[in-house]
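Fold these two proteins, one after the other.
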Amino acid sequence: MSSTNREQLTQCLRADAAALDVALDATQLEKLVEYLFQLERWNKTYNLTAIRDIEAMRIQHVVDSLAVLPALNRIVPRSGSEAATGATETHVRAKIMDVGSGGGLPGVVVAIARPDWMVTCVDAVEKKTAFIRHMSGVLDLPNLDAAHARVERLARADCDVVISRAFASLADFARLSGKHVNEGGTLAAMKGKQPHDEIEALHGEGQWRVTHIDELQVPGLDAERCVVFMRRV
């Protein structure tokens, strides 16, 4: 955990964020770097991710998660769940749920980048939610929480966005997680290639519909990535 490694990771992440047009200050960059080191350390014991190399974690996990921020920024109500009330002032934060979060991806990254959003990471594996709670304390992220549960068994959460990253098919994601989306809210599924067969199956169920798909360009990653946005019919 040398200072040189930290400096190199910080410089790389600063360039990645700039390429993605994601605004991060020095403190946020420091927290992302610390998250990477913590993920690497915990991974040796708890097997949080199949990726072992910290540089690969930077690109395939952290930068991949940062890539969805511009798309989320466009759809998340500026004043959170009360945006539709017409109130000129509100202290209610936007609520985001990350389903099948694993080691906190993209939830921890989103919580670091957007401290004005409340982020809850949900996973059925206790060691993973324990790690996320640990990160909430270590990184001083009062806007980050974790729930050890199957998402379909949680009480309705009234979220502005429920997001997943390689969690399930679109139809299964909507069926299991849809109840947590508030009226006017959005499901967002991070995928590789555009999942045309999954979209057809989702529309066949008649409850949710894809509104748009954003292609994601992840710096340093030579792979197709996209995020599929869905709303209730």
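Now the second one:
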Amino acid sequence: MNRVFVSDCEGPISKNDHAFEVASKFVPNGDRLFTAISRYDDILAELFRRPNYNAGDTLKLILPFLKAYEVTDEKMRGFAAKHLVLVPDVKKTLQHIRKLSQAFIVSTSYEHYIIALCQSIEFPFENTYCTRVNLDEYSLGKNEKIRLKQLAQEIAEMVVPEISLGAASSKDLDEQTRTIIHRLDEIFFEIAAMESGRIYIKTKPVGGAGKAEAIKDIVQKRRVMLSDLVYFGDSITDEEAFKLVRENGGLTVSFNGNQHAVESAEIAVLSRTSIVTAVLAEAFIKSGRSGTLALVQNWNHEELEKSQVSQPLVERLFHSDADELPKVKIITRENMKVLAEESAQFRKRVRGEAIGGLG
């Protein structure tokens, strides 16, 4: 059986949020700027559902501000290589999986980061999908730079917009959040009319529907069925990919995911290392969706020892945590809320409050 492994990058493979970290490094109050835009992104994708807007478009919206503060492609590449933080054991995990099947990374991350990652873990860049950006091809005038810096400061000083508990549409937002969203709309419409607005036209972040399209491209080029594919993700940018794979008989796994990921996937993983990824991937490659779900249903030492997963890998899993196995659960209506809360908190402990709290 020709089965395929596909994973998001930031979360299941690395602990970084490269775009957040770049903004924090090069833009004054860049952490608050990025967080506000990211939350705006979540609200537009989840509640407004605007045509042609995809989760992950934060990576497009932030670019004019990076350009205004003299961020170059060389700076992006150098920063990515210097600050790369991998999930423990991930290099061995991906090497193990690649011996058994075809493996791909589908990420919203900028290509600067994915190139650095692939070099570090010896993964073929041609087996990746990511957000292509060439900052150096754009030039900004003095007045435009000044205006962009003013707007960046304004956004950074805003109250970060929040999604009200139980909100199902834009009508459920409180008045303050509506006002903030309206002002952000005005800001980004203003930028779109600037010279730097060309960045918005040319940049196509691989998030939301973009990830689903990447998966369609993989199965078409590799001549496999979606039911032969397992997908690991962790955030709102993976929802469309999860939906596509799940509705067509493949397997979906949330790895230290936030609420969006847990509510969209079939299996929830809470783990500090990637060894469990190798175990689940091998189980899927050898026994398919049903066999993997059966293993997770009885996730214990005895069943793992009897499984088709190679015993050296199982032993590595047993010794990855001195106290107990990593938490791996089938997601049901009954446990979804609790698992989402546990996974979101675990995610913050593993990746830090700032990055772990992003959508």
